[in-house]
Structure formats: C-alpha cells, structure tokens
Specification:
Layout lengths: L6 H17 L2 H9 L6 H9 L18 H14 L5 H15 L2 H12 L5 E3 L14 E6 L2 E12 L6 E8 L2 E8 L5 E6 L8 E12 L3 E2 L5 H37 L1 E2 L2 E2 L4 H29 L5 H25 L10 H14 L4 H14 L1 H9 L1
Parallel strand pairs: 1-4, 2-4
Antiparallel strand pairs: 2-3, 3-7, 4-5, 5-8, 6-7, 9-10
Helix pairs in contact: 1-4, 4-7, 5-6, 5-7, 7-8, 7-9, 7-10, 8-9, 9-10, 9-11, 11-12
Length: about 375
C-alpha cells in the first residue's frame, strides 16, 4: 500500500486548507454562533465557486471526476477548522450514491445543481446508529402513479436545508431507496434541536406523499446494498473529519501549554501534562493510521468492512480522549463554551454519535469476525 499523495492531491489539500483557514476563523465562528446561524453560507458559496463541491462528481456533470481520497482530504481540513458547512451530507451521503446507483436524470436533477450550491443533498440513514426500538421505517406502496409514502424518519443530517434526500423505504417487506424531493406535496420537514451544533438534524414526515416512479434509486429491493455502500463511505468520511478535529485540538493545546505559565514556567513542562499530551499524540496517530488503511482498502475495491469498523472505533474512542485532554489542559478556559477549544469537543462528540459510537462499532466488528473466520484471519495478516 502507498500512502504518498500526488501533486494534484497536494494542491487540493492546500486549496482546502487556505479556504478554511481564511474563512473559518474563531471570531467568525463565534459571530455565527451568537447570531444563531447554524451554517456559514458565505463559506459555502466560496467552496462552490472554487469547485470543491464538485470534487468527486464526474466531469460529465460539471465536476472534477476525482475520488474519495481527495474528498477525505477536504474533510480533514474542514475538521481541522470546525467549519460549519454540510460537506459530508452533500458529497458523501447524497452525491456519491446518486452517482453510483442513480439514473442519468437523477444525477442531472440532484447532483449537478449541488455543485454550484443551488441546493443541498442528504440521506436519511441515522437509524443505522440507533437502537431498533427507535426505528420507524417509512412504508412505500407501489401504484400506477409511482410510490405512495407514509411514515417518519428522525435525525436526518442537514435535512433542514436539503432539497433532495435518499430515503430507505419498506416495500412489501423488502428495502428500497427513493430519491425524494423534500418540497414535494405530503413531505413535511421539521428542524430538530437534537444535535450538539444547532439544528443540523431534521425530522421528515411523509403523509400520503405521492412520488413519481422514477424516484427509485437503483432497482427495487436493492436498498440494503445501497445503504451498506453509503454507510461504509460515511464512516470513512467521519474518520477523516475526526482526524482533522483531533489533530487540530492537540496542536492548539500543545501551543497553549507552551505559553501558559505557572510558577514562572510553561505548564507544558510539567511531567503530568507532558504525558497526557504524549498520549494524545498516540491517539491521533492511531486514528489517522486506521482511517488511512480503511480508506485505502475501500478505494482499491477491497473488502474493507473490518478496517472501517476498527477505524470508526478509534475515531470515537481515541478522539474522545484527545478532546477531553484538550479541554482539561486549558483549565477554566476549556470550560468556556465560547472559547475555540470547546467547539472541537462538540464536533468530536457529534462525529462519534453519527451512525453509531465506539460500542456500536465494536458490536458490528464482533459480528463480522464471528460470522466469517476468513475475515478474521485476513485482518490479522494485514
């Protein structure tokens, strides 16, 4: 495996770094927060103008035709600057599966306008990280006009600002996925104050919503395959975000402890603090290395199920230790909800909760290993 990056990838990473560094500054984020603005629309416009939103979109649709590797580089930079824009929902949950499974018309209607920032995309798959008792599947009845939908989905990431959402539905006991125009009659979208960062989630209710026949993504009954495909890429994308969040929190804490003095010396010189920072560094590198392995296997078309679960576990548990250390070593400043380091704690927890936390990933990992001895052997050999 080769983890070195090309000149083109380095240029993309540098472009993303400069955009987020210039726009997602602490004072700007605090201003948005105090104004009750959940998203930075100005930054979103810049990302569209610079072609970032079309990074992983085929050239035939007006994009750059690049892949998940390049997209994850951008997400790392977003995480490093905790920039409040719906990149993951649009590019990973929405655009990638529509490009992979959708028709040419669906791609033209949903993905092409997204590149310019005209509208947003998402997928209603939060139930993957929920307890079964909380999941209330949407039912779809096939009729002469298309699909009649009834039911409700909760915690749809960035659903409050989305125009199109991929929604898993139950059709006569089988799972399919529909591409739903959220402005359609019978579809009600309500923002939910359930997230740590504002109204980033939404509840979508379907009341006799009659959708056209061409709303089906892929083929009928293919829903479980599509959902698993999305989940794998979403978890890797979460790891990319978490890598940026954790590393930046660690670096800012190292800088702070190098400047903050007690008894006339920097507190970073105290052995207890130095050991905690060393542990944080180890956790960050564990998050990065497991994530890179999962991303590489997924990009190469290899079975990456075990590696993705392991990477997401580290992105939950390792990141928790890092951001808690960052807050603790900032002392009273770390407890101030308006101080920049606190935002990294909130972002880290939000990412960890998305699509299942560390214990959820361990459970799924155990099921994989128990169900297939060859998978376990292959994981040990790698």
């Amino acid at each position: 495996m080769d983890f070195s990056i090309s000149e083109e990838q380095a240029a993309i990473k540098e472009l993303a770094h400069q955009i987020f560094k210039d726009k997602a500054i602490a004072d700007r984020l605090l201003e948005l927060n105090r104004a009750g603005q959940d998203y930075d629309t100005e930054l979103w416009t810049v990302l569209a103008e610079q072609g970032v939103l079309g990074l992983s979109v085929p050239e035939s649709l007006g994009g750059s035709g690049l892949g998940l590797n390049e997209l994850c580089m951008v997400l790392e930079e977003q995480g490093a600057h905790v920039a409040p824009v719906p990149l993951l929902a649009n590019l990973v949950l929405g655009a990638l599966p529509i490009i992979e499974f959708g028709s040419e018309q669906q791609q033209a209607d949903a993905v092409k306008p997204m590149i310019s920032g005209e509208h947003n995309l998402t997928a209603a798959i939060a139930e993957l990280g929920m307890r079964p008792a909380r999941v209330r599947p949407v039912t779809a009845i096939k009729n002469s006009q298309g699909w009649l939908l009834n039911g409700m989905v909760d915690c749809v990431q960035d659903g409050a600002i989305a125009r199109f959402a991929l929604v898993p539905v139950n059709v006569s006991g089988h799972c399919s996925v529909l591409l739903v125009d959220l402005e359609h009659a019978g579809v009600d979208v309500q923002p939910q104050q359930l997230g740590l960062l504002g109204k980033w989630n939404a509840r979508i209710r379907f009341s006799d919503a009659q959708l056209p026949a061409d709303s089906l993504l892929g083929i009928e009954g293919q829903g479980n395959e599509i959902i698993e495909w999305i989940e794998q890429r979403a978890n890797v994308a979460h790891c990319a975000l978490q890598t940026g969040v954790s590393e930046s929190a660690m670096k800012q804490t190292a800088e702070y402890t190098g400047e903050r003095k007690q008894f006339g010396v920097p507190i970073g010189s105290f052995q207890a603090l130095a050991m905690r920072m060393a542990d944080a560094f180890i956790d960050v590198e564990a998050i990065r290395s497991t994530y890179w392995l999962a991303l590489w296997r997924l990009s190469e078309g290899l079975d990456a199920r075990i590696e993705i679960r392991a990477a997401k576990y580290w992105a939950c548990e390792g990141a928790h230790r890092v951001v808690c250390t960052a807050q603790h070593l900032h002392g009273g400043m770390g407890a101030d909800v308006e101080y920049p380091i606190h935002r990294y704690f909130l972002w880290s927890k939000m990412i960890a909760y998305s699509l299942g936390g560390g214990s959820h990933q361990l459970e799924k990992l155990g099921q994989l290993l128990a169900s297939n001895d060859d998978l376990g052997l292959a994981a040990l050999q790698s």
